[in-house]
Amino acid sequence: MNRAKINRLKDKAFKYFGIFASVIGIVILAIFIGFVIYMGIQRLSWDFMVELPSRFAENSGIYTAWMGTVWIMVFTTLISFPLGVGAGIYLEEYGKKNRWSSFLEINISNLASVPSIIYGLLGLGVFVRMMQMGNSILAGALTLSLLILPIIIVSTREAIKAVPSSIRDASNALGASKWQTIWHQVLPASFGGILTGVILALSRAIGETAPLIVVGALVYVPFAPQSPLDEFTVLPVQIYNWVSRPQEEFVINAAAAIIVLLGITFIMNGIAVYFRNKWQNKMQW
Amino acid sequence: MDSQTKSNQPKTSQVKTKPKLNSKNQSFKLQANNVDVFYDDFQAIENISLDIVEQSITAFIGPSGCGKSTFLRLFNRMNDYIDGFLMNGSILLDGNDIYDSSINVEELRKTVGMVFQKPNPFPKSVYENVAYGLRIQGIKDEEYIENRVVESLKQATLYNEIEGNLEKQALALSGGQQQRLCIARALAVKPSILLMDEPTSALDPISSGKIEDLIHELKKEFTIVIVTHNMQQAARVSDNTAFLYMGKLIEYGDTQKIFTNPEKDRTQNYITGRFG
């Protein structure tokens, strides 16, 4: 066999390995989703969405859980978006590049891989106990914000890095101040990327269970939250609770709740893709 | 470092006295005095002194990495953004040191405009591109802005080509048109100096020709400093030419003299294409 043939063979081998790897990921996900839908779809109904939780599986609804999820997500967004994007802008545009900044950079990346339950313990110690917020929505949202801040900071920095320096030069050379260049040129050009990062981070937050259990999300909340200082539960906690019950009916409830949670996540990711495409079409060089 | 250089290499001390330009009573717009530039440990510019004549075109030529772009970017302080940048000596604009701590860099850049190697319009309309420099100054008078936009586009000989369609996307223009848009954008804020960093190196010969014609026109109003790789271009457009090599100013003087009868062998070798 000559060299060209060997190369062609290698080419083919890698191609099939790639197909195999992709199929594994997609098939497993499809089986999982199919199974959940098969189990839960029968239970999905308007009543299921608007009923309060109950100790009887057939009367139980997820009203308080998804309301709690919405409250938590709104506050997590309000807290983490400005902080994360602000930190990203500072590190990329203002911070001097030296040993201290690269130390900081490595540690922010490390923070993204700290187990979420550790953040839960931190939230319990700082927000719930020290700052006496109790097991409230605010404490939960602050804890989740800490959890996803590193992801938002890193993706903001990546998005800003992708803005060509020629645009910055052009703006600076016309006498723009640093902030004017950031506000008029860098942020509009990188906003699609920043938004994608933020929404992907929020999609992670929406599925988190462990830190919220530690912070004190309750399993049984007989009312929907009225203010950020109310007690709460969220969908993943409700699901976790139902799955751990022995009765078959509760497991079916859990499957139905998973469908709702997946639905919310898909919608959020859809929004992310929409905005990314919209901004990328506008920004082409 | 500076004294060492002097004692070891007596040749550089010749450069210390400014090269005389046979100026016909022209005044000097920009003056560089004993300028050294360091990037951390690397010395990019070594003890360069030269004067730039008002309302003339001065070309910097030299091989890649000789420091000509670095030197150009000193005049509007664009090197300030580079980590480890350090400068000794002084640069005077109309007699005022632009590296003085009292200087407002943003104000300086309104006086000293710049055009870059690669056309870099903003991803906006033609109108908004040219208006940008005025808007960031806080000018709200839309009528004034529109007048400046049209005037600048006409001055940059782009207005007729786009048939007054100011809403056209800047990135939809051809490369040469984009570069003239960038020139119009720089002109809109009424600078007195225009720095051009290889403005035609990304363009085809016809577009380059149009830019050269434009540069000739602009000379009536502006002091132009142009960095170029293209020696024919330097010979065609400039009044004075500076040849830089390895961070040093080798020769500076009347363009015609530099290209026909240079004093230094190195200049001769470079312009005849024997090296670089």
TrEMBL record, chain A:
GO terms for molecular function: phosphate transmembrane transporter activity. It is found in: Cell membrane. Residues 66-272 form the ABC transmembrane type-1 domain. It is a multi-pass membrane protein. It comes from the Bacteria. The chain crosses the membrane at residues 16-41, 61-91, 137-160, 181-202, 250-275. InterPro entries: MetI-like, MetI-like_sf, Phosphate_PstA. One of its GO terms (cellular component) is plasma membrane. Keywords: Cell membrane, Membrane, Transmembrane, Transmembrane helix, Transport. GO terms for biological process: phosphate ion transmembrane transport. Belongs to the binding-protein-dependent transport system permease family. CysTW subfamily. NCBIfam families: 3a0107s02c. This is Phosphate transport system permease protein PstA. It comes from Fodinibius salipaludis. The gene is pstA.
From TrEMBL, chain B:
SUPFAM superfamilies: P-loop containing nucleoside triphosphate hydrolases (SSF52540). GO terms for cellular component: membrane. GO terms for biological process: phosphate ion transmembrane transport. Residues 1-23 are annotated as: Disordered. Residues 30-271 form the ABC transporter domain. PANTHER family: ABC TRANSPORTER I FAMILY MEMBER 17. This is Phosphate ABC transporter ATP-binding protein. The gene is pstB.
